[in-house]
Amino acid sequence: MRSGWTERPLTGKANMPSKKRPLLFGVIALATVLLSSICCLMLWKQSKRGMPEDAGVSASIESPDGVYKAVIFYQNGGGAGASYCFDSVTVVPTDLPDAQAWNTREVFSASCTDDLLHRVVWTSTRQLQITFDPSLAVQGIDAVTLRGHAGKNAEVEIRFEMQ
User: Fold this and answer.
1) DSSP states of 86-153 as a string?
2) Are 87 and 72 in contact (CB under 8 A)?
3) Spatial distance between the Cα atoms of 39 and 46, rounded to a whole number of angstroms
4) Which of 55, 47, 48 has its CA nearest to residue 109?
5) Beta-carbon neighbour count of residue 158 at 10 Å?
6) How far, in Å, CA of 36 to CA of 14, rounded?
7) For the whole prediction, is pTM greater than 0.90?
8) What is the pLDDT of residues 105-162, one digit of tens each?
């Protein structure tokens, strides 16, 4: 032993009685599991949320082979001076309920247009055409969404025709 050094017993947490350690680890483990469960539940609920009350399905149009469908949504509300109206289109597998398609990535979104139902047409099994008037599509909104592909592995081509 070196001169000037003295041995002292350890103090603090390292000297905690062995009966309290399992209790502490149990409390920490339980808190971790509880927090993880709460986070997972919140994410699950968010992924299952449905359409807002001010939205609805205008139409659902199946592809010629019945594998995909284009779901047309509307969303409108507000009051005098603060009203809003949006149309959007998503492409999803036909087995997905229309209301759940709301949570998928939209291929078209714009201000409400005239009769969008007759402007969304499947031109082949993997090609959807959306015709719209750009001057109407931007009224009262900041941006128009136009995505060129949809579906699993982006196998559905979306074509846009402006009139």
Assistant:
1) EEEEEEEETTS-GGGGGGSPEEEEEE--TTGGGGEEEEETTEEEEEE-HHHHTTT-S--EE-SEESGG
2) yes
3) 11
4) 55
5) 21
6) 29
7) no
8) 889 988 877 677 788 999 999 999 998 887 776 666 667 888 888 887 889 999 998 8
> Which residue in this structure is represented by tokens 């402006």?
162
Burial of residue 96, with CB atoms counted within 10 A of its CB: 0-12 exposed, 13-18 middle, 19 or more buried: middle
Exposed e or buried b per residue across 16-37, where buried means at least 16 C-beta atoms within 10 angstroms of its C-beta: eeeeeeeeeeeeeeeeeeeeee
Rounded Cα distance between 29 and 36, Å, is 11
Per-domain boundaries in the chain:
13-47, 55-162
